Amino acid sequence: MVRLSRDQLTGIVEVDETFIGGLKIGDGKQGRSAKTKTLVVVVTECIGKQIKGSFQMYFV
Hints:
By secondary structure, the chain is mainly beta. It contains no helices and 3 strands. A 3-stranded antiparallel beta sheet has the order 1-2-3, with no helix packed on it. The protein has a domain at 9-38. The chain is 0% helix and 35% strand.
């Protein structure tokens, strides 16, 4: 579900990124340079010592 009017995250936030996508068989390219991969960034609020609260995910 997508909430079009996203609330701004507040306080301490944690950000992490990863590349999602597969290696074509026989392609031989690995890592960030592979054109079949998509960058995904996740931002989440930290409340106390645990991560609980709102989060936002972006496909770049």
